[in-house]
Amino acid sequence: MRLRAFGVGAVAALAALGLFAAFIGFKGPSSGGGTLLLSLSSRSAGRLGDTQVLIHSARGGWSALAHIGNVTVPAAPETYAAAQADVAPGAYDGLRLAGRDLSAPIRVTAGQVEPVLVTVSGGLPQDVFAGNGAYNSGLLGLQGKLKQLPDFSLTDQDGRILDRSSLVGSIVVLAAFHTTCHDTCPLYTSILYQLRQRVPPAVRLLEVSTDPAADSVVALHDYAVLAGTSWPLLTGSADQLAAFWAPFGVRLSGADSHTNFLGVFDGHGLLHHFETGIPDAGSVPGGLSTMLSSEGMRELRSHGDGWDAAAVADQVRAAADLGNPSAGGGGLAPSFRVDALGGGKIGPADFSGTPLVLNFWATSCLPCRIELPLLQRATTERKVRLLLVDERDSASAARTFLNQVEVSSPVASDPDGAVGRLYGVSVLPVTVFIRADGSVEGKYLGQTDAAILGDHLAALTG
Fold first, then answer.
1. Contacts of 120 (CB under 8 A, 6+ apart)
2. Does residue 76 sit in helix, strand or coil?
3. Count of alpha carbons within 13 Å of 12, Cβ hemisphere only?
4. How far is CA 226 from CA 198, 286, 291, in A?
5. Tens of pLDDT along 360-404?
């Protein structure tokens, strides 16, 4: 393992060249190993004292990785580039620094660069985000741009206490429900029932009540028996449940008055995707069909808003960085019309009748720095229109970023992530390829390259 600590001059040089973005496909060291780039950031500027950094693997135990001096840690989205180290390819499971052991899956690939973000608060390291998707999520989380599972202590259908600490490191799928609901809630329970067959057991499923008055432990137990569920159904006092649901805009309810919510959270508890409409459940498990009102039966037969357990499973895989990032096409591209970075309004309808590539990006997305110029060149050469969708940035930050990477394609601003949710965007970057007739040819999760773009653009123009 060969260590190269970053000095201020080296950091400035890399920043000027845009190489902080070059984590995917960037040439690694000639030693045959991979390169681990360690960055620090915080919610508000602070410091981290002098510390050794060690990395752990199941096979090799703890190994020295870097030494960090007494440094100032900037507030996100800014980062402090703490060290660059050549690391043997393989799987690692945590870092040790400042007296703390922090668990995180870290995959180092020969000839490539693995970005690792350590968040700092109160002078101590708090969490580790490894890989491009997690790195981006960590920065967005520090900026408050991603909602997060709150601290909680609630009671399940067997009278056991479940709290936030028991979910650390797990992908979580959370749904709102209450036991006296006769329409949408049983459909959400059905989605989780089907999801249990599609995702690994390590993925945690939860339903949390929105009706503390009716949902006693006994009521939850009876509902679990009726539905045949195997996951926790949680309840608590009115204050506990109101505090739990407040970050997600879910109101406490009763009878058939309720707010729908299903969310997929990553291993850090950050919300990556959510749904609030009526699902396409297809069927309901156990005896839940006996609970459905005429409205509930109508919703079941209607196929709802088109999202089903398979779509949620795709989001789980994206949150866990599992599975193939290439997703199939089909259906019409969702329509939107939002503020354009250059003024006025913009949306897919402005490109009607011509092939279009939508690219979702953000200034905190490291691979986007490499991908955006490539996208602009490739679409220009193929005479395909390109619309960039900027996720959750200010207009000034977006303009500065685009000037740095010398990209001038039209930009749609998505400050609250609404357009991203229309397209199921849970990681960045995401590229959607749209045919001239408005149908989706395909979708790619993660950084594209010339070969990937060539295949999709040929399909659009062939």
1. 40, 41, 42, 46, 48, 73, 126
2. coil
3. 3
4. 21, 6, 10
5. 999 988 889 999 999 999 999 999 999 999 999 999 999 999 999
Checking phi first, is residue 261 left (phi over 0); if not, alpha (psi -120 to 50) or beta?
Answer: beta
The DSSP call for residue 440 is E
Please state, in angstroms and rounded to a whole number, the distance separating the CA atoms of residues 433 and 440: 6
Render pLDDT for 171-216 as a digit per residue (tens, 0 to 9).
Answer: 999 999 999 999 999 999 999 999 998 888 889 999 999 999 999 9
CA pseudo-torsion sign 445, 421, 389, 347: positive
CA torsion, ordered 181, 185, 189, 195, to nearest 10 deg: 180
DSSP string over 226-244: HHT--S-EEB--HHHHHHH
**Can you tell me the distance from the alpha carbon of 81 to that of 63, in angstroms, rounded to the nearest whole number?**
20
| Full DSSP string of 16-60 | HHTGGGTTSS----TTS-EEEEEEEEESS-EEE-SEEEEEEETTT
| Contact assessment for residue 379 and residue 410, using Cβ atoms and an 8 Å cutoff | no
Q: Which residues contact 113 (CB under 8 A, 6 or more apart)?
A: 22, 23, 24, 26, 28, 34, 35, 36, 37
In contact, 68 and 86? CB cutoff 8 Å: no
Classify the C-alpha dihedral 391-395-400-403 as positive or negative: positive
Enter the DSSP assignment of 79.
-
Residue 330: pLDDT over 80: no
In order of their start, the domains of the chain are 3-130 (2.60.40), 153-319 (3.40.30.10), 326-461 (3.40.30.10)
Instruction: Say if CB 100 and CB 20 are below 8 A apart.
Output: no
Number of residues that this document lists for the chain: 462
Q: Are strands 71-73 and 46-48 parallel, antiparallel or unpaired?
A: antiparallel
Q: How far is 62 from 58, CA to CA, in rounded Å?
A: 9
* Residue 298, both tokens: 């109508």
pLDDT for the residue 358: 97
Token code pair at residue 53: 């950094």
